[in-house]
Design goal:
Blueprint lengths: L5 H38 L2 H27 L1
């Protein structure tokens, strides 16, 4: 009897793709924090830096939640 494992391979490919996307989102969040901290040091304005960082984090959350909700529909 010959069985194929195509559905398992497809599921593995989807999982790998989701893991890559999650890694890219986390990497981009880390990059924004590092760049934001360095930029804050050069701007000499801690309130401006905090505002920029807060906006960036909020944007990432909106994009991540939006992608998750869109994937469930």
């Amino acid at each position: 009897m010959h069985t194929t494992h195509e559905p398992a391979r497809d599921a593995d490919a989807r999982l790998k793709s989701r893991n890559r996307r999650t890694a890219l989102v986390l990497l981009s969040i880390a990059a924004v924090f590092f760049v934001g901290i360095i930029a804050t040091r050069f701007m000499d304005g801690s309130a401006t830096g905090i505002g920029v960082m807060g906006s960036a984090v909020l944007l990432f959350l909106v994009v991540a939640i939006g992608r998750n909700l869109r994937g469930k529909a």
